[in-house]
Amino acid sequence: MRKFGLIGCPLKHSFSKRYFSQKFQDEHLTDCQYDLLEIDNIDKIIVVLENNPELVGLNVTIPYKEQVIPYLDELEPGCKAIGAVNTIKVTGDKLVGYNTDYIGFKQSLSTWLPSEPVKALVLGTGGASRAVKQALVDLAIPFLMISRNPSKQEEGVSYEELAQASEIFGTHHLIINTTPLGTYPKIDEMPDIPFSFLSAKHMVYDLVYNPEETLLMKTVRQTGGMAKNGLEMLHLQAEASWEIWNRD
Question: Is this model's pTM higher than 0.85 or not?
């Protein structure tokens, strides 16, 4: 049996097990199994590997996309630049990290955006935001990071500063939510941005996919703007993970 799995916490509403279990069924892959491997501390990845010797691939989700890196033997060069891992290939005792969030987001965003130039606001500075930032750089889309407490090492502004800067919304029409705010069951939550500054020109790409329409997406659509959830990105990153796990 070839085993695959997801590490993170919490995993109760994870997309990955449903997706891969259905894939295995549809493609008659009877020798494949995908498990949720919830751990409350990244140190326990060692126990996961010891208890599951048939593991050949792992996905990594919140909050371990950055914390897992010291446990890996090697990072794919592009992943090293991003500084976050969401896919691990297990070959014997060797663990190699990849970032398929980058692949999924870049492909999904580039086919959704209009052709005219755009600037972006990136909400959040966690592991997912690192993949988003690299994709924006490679797509030549200027961006500004928004977080509760911007670090000195990373240019950006706080939500409080953003609320006082209506001119930013006049030039940055793409808003990308990389935070988990709005995810089921806390569907009444959303990032604290000043919606009075939004217009029909604005577009929201929310990496949250459960619910299908987040409160952030609904609010932006009410202003006449466009909105997209993260489900297509998830499909694309999952297929990229599968391709990595099956390379020779």
Answer: yes
Mean pLDDT per 10-residue run, the chain (248 residues)?
96 90 97 97 97 97 95 94 96 95 97 94 92 96 91 77 93 96 94 93 96 96 97 97 95
Residue 65: active-site member: yes
* Pairwise CA distance, residues 161 & 157, whole Å: 6
What is the per-residue pLDDT for 156? Answer: 87
Give the chain's domains with CATH numbers: 2-98 (3.40.50.10860), 102-230 (3.40.50.720)
The token pair at 199 is: 């217009």
Give the span between the Cα atoms of 77 and 79, in whole angstroms.
5
Q: Are 199 and 220 in contact (CB under 8 A)?
A: no
The encoded tokens of residue 229 equal 């959830």
Of residues 150, 163, 175, 156, the one with CA closest to residue 227: 175
- The whole-number pLDDT of residue 13 equals 79
DSSP secondary-structure letter at 42?
A: G
| Closest to 71 (Cα-Cα) out of 88, 54, 92, 52 | 88
Q: What letter does residue 209 receive in the DSSP assignment?
A: -
User: Of the residues 3, 12, 65, 119, which is catalytic?
Assistant: 65
Structure tokens at 170: 């006049």
